[in-house]
Amino acid sequence: MQPSFNPNLVTHSLLRRSRQGALATLMMGSGDPYCSLVNVATAPDGAPVILISRLAVHTKNVLTDSRVSLMLDERAPGDPLEGARIMLSGKAEQATAENREMLRRRYLNAHPSAADYADFADFSFFVIRPSGTHLVAGFGRIVDLKPEQFLTDISDAAELLAAEQGAVDHMNEDHREALGLYATRLLGADAAEWRCSGCDPDGLDLMAAGRTLRLQFPERVTSPGGLRKMLVRLADEARAKV
């Protein structure tokens, strides 16, 4: 039996798994559309995070008009039009003193090599605050969604978010076997040096060999204790699979 189509979950997963996307901005002066390739991570709620240089045309455009669109696709083998993709609209907000360290941390977890230039004076982190998205997931599966349908509610998860990096480091240093089991037995991926790149109330992000997986939790977790119990539970489930 084919699994039921859940557009909210498809969009949510694609946001969390995407590491590159096509950023569309409006050209200064003319307002003509301009598109460029950018690396992408996510904020705790799933909003896209980008790191861009003021020397780049797209950054100059964003600083003049913050309206942007970001296309993310599944990079499916074969015909790329058969894979799911989203066209997300919103406004790009430059990092503030309050959220820059969090955005920097999550971006570098997803793109470690960016540490070589992330703190250069001309580079800035931006978070794209979505106003909506257009999902195309195959024939007859075209849906417009509001942000509350695909972003993660973090209003009750302050404790978890404060402990996130410690949990990520702990999993990568002491529980690589469990990460491998999540990837291979729960998500059907090939064996690799899987590592954790982030966690939030809805799930865990795993990365290896240029690929990102999303391990969705069966229930939300909002505290470090809840996360610990969930990860033990999922590891036990993975070990029980043959």
UniProtKB/TrEMBL annotation:
Gene3D superfamilies assigned: Electron Transport, Fmn-binding Protein, Chain A, PNP-oxidase-like
Domain (CREG-like beta-barrel): residue spans on this chain: 11-150
SUPFAM superfamilies: FMN-binding split barrel (SSF50475)
Membrane-spanning residues: none
DUF2470 domain location: 164-234
PANTHER family: CELLULAR REPRESSOR OF E1A-STIMULATED GENES, ISOFORM A (PTHR13343:SF17), CREG1 PROTEIN (PTHR13343)
UniProt-recorded name of the protein: HugZ family protein
Species of the source: Bradyrhizobium denitrificans
